[in-house]
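Letters spell out the chain; backbone shape is given numerically. Both lines appear below:
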Amino acid sequence: QGFMMNADLGYGSKERYVARLFGMWFSDIASIAVNGSTNNLNYDLSNFDSELNSPPSTGNGINTMQSGGLNYTVEGDGSEWKITGMAKYTGNRPIHQVNSYTRNYLPTGDTHQYSWLDTHDKSHEVSSNHKAEFSIRNKVNVTVEPTFNYIKNDNRSSSLNATLSEELGDSALSIIEKLYAGGQEGLASLLNRQRWLNMRNGESINGTLNVRGVIKTSRRSWLTITSYSKMANRSYDTWQAYNIAYGNVTGSRTTMQHFGATPDRDRQFNESANWKHRIGKHGSTVGVQYTFTNFREKRTRMVHGDTFEGNLITDSVTYDMLPSMTHNLPEISAQSYRSDYDERRHLIWLETTLQKSTSDYNSSLTVELPLRIADRRFTYERGGRTQQIDRTQFMPGLNIRASYSTKYMENYKWLSLSFKSTPHYASLFNVVDITDDTDPLNVYVGNPDLKNYRINTLSLSFRKQKRDSWENRLNIDYNRTHNANARGYYYNTATGVRTYRTYNIDGNYWLNANHNISRYFMFDQSKLVPFIHPALNTRIGFVRSVDLVGSTTADNPDFTVAPPKRKVSTLSINETARLIIGITKKASISGSASISYQRYMSPDEGFSDFSSWVNNYSLSGTLNLPRNWSLSTGMTLYTRRGFDDKQLNTSDLVWNAFLSKSILKGQVVLHMNAYDILRQLNNVTHFVNAQARTETVSNVIPSYVLFKIQYRWNKQPKGKSRTQTGIDPNAPIIPIGM
């Protein structure tokens, strides 16, 4: 028997803190581990040293986390049975502040949308999963895996948005705030403005049970029987208030709504039998599988609402309202609905694998023919109208994989080629003939003629590795979607209202190529430079995005006619070079450079081709000093060019440094960690497709200094070292399953 314990405690500037405790008891046949942690550093501390080994260079929001858990494992003699499991609690309180600018591509001229979102969320999650494995005379293997998950959420958010026909520039936020304060009413380019307050409280309970048995029916064949069941219950209440004005209309329409939902329920049952038989002397197999799946999904949402005169910026509006008030408000039948989805699916999976093995190489060819038959029924009730859709569909697929590899690592080569054709069902929610105007600025209508779609993927992989030489890896992937389900929209140029409908469209595909080359140069360990590790990665991608966007001045255009097609092609080239140099046993230095180039092109009128660059240059090093001192530091220069928002075209230098000292024979380690010393950290992303270009800036953790102390204590079994117990003495102690 043995014991292990680790403790972690730290506090720093800007009220940053971290605390963690881990302990484990183990023996030859069992182990029990407990752990708990809390921090506001955006770290998942299930890895004891994660914040030291991977200090943040970018971030998204500020999150306060708490977690605690228990892990266990018990194993019988002779490995005839083994039981493992865990129970865990996680609490999160993230705060996100996101500013976005979107340029919408329209045939009649682009529009410009500005938005500011502020969210404060709180969640509590309790999860548990267990696994029991049994072996009976090496002929029957049984695995039982139950899981349980409970989540409680409390989410609140506010947003400010405006859409204009002209770009506002750097002062967009102050101009839009004045719109809501009663000024700037004469802004000619204004299409709409909106202010939202949201609150959502809810909880969910999820559970699964997976039972799997493998029976050896003969010396060359075996039968696998699987039973899987899943249940999910969700209930939530949502309060929402919004203020919307169209164009230069004085005043606003303000509506307060309460959403009360009975629990949503999901049920799934899956029964499967898979028989395989080995043929020949090289491990070739043939197999057949039958799977029956029954999935049931129920949704119920009742919407009550009322209107009031006011301004969500200048007036004081409370989030809270007693539940009894909700039922006294009038029901909005156009937004209340009930739905029931029932799917019964039969899958017949035919498979054969042909293998050949010699003294020099292995080769294999696998052909899989999945045949799906699905009977789907969707019942939808909204606004006093009930609709039912029944579809029975046959969906065949095809998977082919071929591979070749040599047997000797001194000169190893591996080549793989695969093709996969996978059918996908169109969501019946997009098929039902409805009009959903819950969000007045984004209206959704159904398409009864919507068809299923299919994704075809072709992949080529190659690897070459030779002892004391370079290792090469190459991957090429091509993906094309036929009859893609695209959510196109008509844009009302007078009000800025989008009316969406899902259509089938062809022409979407992407092609990616990735090449990696690396090598370890090992020298005499007594020399100044014992090793050098260079690596170079090249990625080239091309994406063709085809979507549907149209302009209209009518409130209800003819949606049976799809909006005009728009095409955007994106060429991406990324080159990343890394170099790690060891300097005796006391130090190491590493550097990297990542250069990313994107070129956006479109033949559509009104689209101007443009390019963007996002480059990173990093240099870091570690120095082990006398008297058990250690110093690590790293600097990264982030540069961005080509953004519409000129404030994003910046060069930011992020510098982190870590100083530590171990005492008491390594049992105690003192740390001083400094993050973003130059205070230039930010988080910027951008996304482009055929409908729009979006640039987003999110809040990050501010610069701070953290002082921390670590304590480690181990008691090993007599006569056994940690290596003998299967534990690396130099590795962080991580609970099983975390």
In short: The CA atoms of residues 71 and 86 lie 4 Å apart. The chain has a mean pLDDT of 83.
